[in-house]
Every structure is written in C-alpha cells, then in structure tokens.
Amino acid sequence: MFRPLVALAAVGSACGMALALVSSGSAAIAHPQTPPTQTPATQQLGQPAAQATVPPPVRMFTADAGLMLNFIKADKTADFEAVVAKLKEALQKSAKPERKQQAASWKVFKSPDPAAGGNVLYVFVMDPAVKGADYSIASILAEAFPPSEMDELFKRYTSAYGPGQNVVNLALVADLDK
User: Which pTM was predicted?
Assistant: First the structure.
C-alpha cells in the first residue's frame, strides 16, 4: 500500500497563515479528474461515446483553506507545468467572478525534495479557498479551451500523475499573525 509521508510548510497569501501538514496515508488518494468526453482507452474498447462519457468529479473545498498534493512522475514535470500554465490562462481569461477569486488565492509550489517512488510533489495551496467553486482542473480547462485542445491538455495532465492526488480541507484553528 502506498503511504506517502510528506512534511510541508507553506505560508498562505492573504492572511500569512502558516500551515504544517504531515500526511501518512490517512487522506484518500484520488486520481486526476476524468474528462467530460470519451477517452482514447474507451474508444479502443469500442464503447459508444454515450456510455463512455463521464462527467468530471467536482472538487470543492468546504473549509477555510485547501491543499491538493499532486504526485507527478519525474519525467513528466514539464508536461504538468505546461498544463498549470494553461490553467492559469484559463482562470485569468474567465468571465466568471469565482474563477478570478480562485486565481487570486491559488498558489502552486514544487517541492525540491523527492517524493515517494521518485515522484515530484506539487502542492496547490488555496488560501482562502473559494467555497462553492469547482477546483477540478478538467472543468476549468474545458471552460476556456476548445475540445481539440482539451484532448491534448488532458492527455498531458493525466499521464503526468504517479500515485495520484490528495485533496485536503483545512479549517483555521489559529491565526498567529493577529
């Protein structure tokens, strides 16, 4: 069983909140979101598009802040970072106010230390988290880019993942700056 041990210290943007997280496998590992279109794998299986279409899961934070721990294959970091750049572009060009709020409080960190299995750890820090906003990467990208571009983006995104992604809600216990 994969049990990542991650020690992370991050400083939030707006309130200067210090976070310390140690994850020892207690949070569920989720794999990257499934695209809202038929995947090449299901096309090869000969399944009709109507049966293969799976809506992407909604990623919402219900607490004050949130983290997404992304375990990325070492040889796929350039692909992952290219998708993150497109994510930034999608958030910035969106006409939706919640997307602007998400962009303002969403930071992406890369750990200089190797993660389990030789993977690279990227941490998304949402502080504060925009409550009720969908943080699923596939949904955000699909709002901004045509399906022809989404296919390539999603392929790069999903193939970059090693063991998966942990999504963590964080409730503020103390603000040591105030």
Answer: 0.70
% of the chain with per-residue pLDDT over 90: 63
Helix axes 77-93, 147-160, angle to 10 degrees: 140
Task: List alpha helices for the chain, DSSP H.
Answer: 40-44, 49-52, 77-93, 97-105, 137-144, 147-160
C-alpha 168 chain-centroid distance: 11
Would 1 be classed as within a structural domain?
A: no
Cα separation, 78 vs 50, whole angstroms: 33
The residue whose two tokens read 């296919």 is 151
Residue 33 belongs to what domain range?
6-170
Q: What angle do CA 9, 123, 71 make, to 5 degrees?
A: 120
Contacts of 42 (CB under 8 A, 6+ apart): 51, 52
**pLDDT value at residue 118:** 94
Three-state DSSP state, 17: coil
